Amino acid sequence: AKANGKNTYTYFEDSYNQMLTDKIELQSELRRAIENEEFVLFYQAQMDISKKKLVGFEALIRWNHPIKGLLNPVDFIYLAEESGLIIPIGKWALKCACKQLKEWSDMGYTDITMSVNLSARQFRDENFVQTILEIIEETGIDPSRLELEITESIALDNLEYTIEVIKELNKIGVKFSLDDFGTGYSAMSYLKRLPISNVKIDKSFLDTVLEDTTDQKIIQAIINLAYNLDLQVIAEGVEQLEHEQLLQRLNCNMAQGYLYSKPVPKEKAEDLLNSSDLM
Ligand code: C2E
Ligand code: CA
Ligand code: CA
Ligand code: CA
To answer: Where is the secretion signal located (predicted)?
Structure first.
């Protein structure tokens, strides 16, 4: 039994070392990826379902890895956050999204918004506001078309600081959305203090809403709460027509999900813009 125990320990140690090696390797690859410009942004349509109109895009990062192919954020964002590389990667994503917004605006699509996800480290970075201002200046976008997405945990980590930062950027028109809403905190009293414009109802509610009447009541409650606070509501993860019909019944006009489009590369997003012209 003792020998066995040792074997198990050695095995565990080996796989643990392997995991560390993989992690260190991925981390140095991540660093190289910034220099080699291996990241790309995909864009997912955001719809006004009452008008059947495309109103904006959410930018979602992908890593075009030279060997592993196209990687989703779940495969590398945690490591980027842990290592601090999320600061340059996030800056790249912001700049790329703003350049794209400007390009589409110059093509005549002046009404659409661009949403960009922020990580905690980015938002907490002392240069954050300055970085956003520089990117806006450099790309020449209309700041009121830019929406930055933060989660409840980022927002509440230091509420006073959060409010200060958001207000600073609100001054020039930049808006904020509360992402994954409903998954984090039960006390929502902080909402009335937060100078945000949108809440995004987390996909997990939509997953079960068609079978579960409690979820319907939660979504209804979130929508009512948001409207009472003059916030827009976007439902995430809309996959089925039944979801859309339910949202319409609940008076939620904004939706995002595979029913309309998966996140797609720039060219495909332009096709969506083009065809939305014809609607
Ligand atoms: P998120 O901000 O909550 O983004 C929504 C995720 O749900 C996206 O996954 C999107 O592809 C997926 N999704 C959208 N509609 C549907 C649907 O109808 N059904 C299903 N099953 N999924 C749907 P993705 O692109 O893998 O991104 C995952 C997360 O990575 C994002 O979650 C966001 O937190 C993070 N992320 C993405 N891009 C960036 C970035 O540039 N910076 C930072 N800091 N985080 C990012
Ligand atoms: Ca998001
Ligand atoms: Ca979300
Ligand atoms: Ca999420």
So the answer is: none
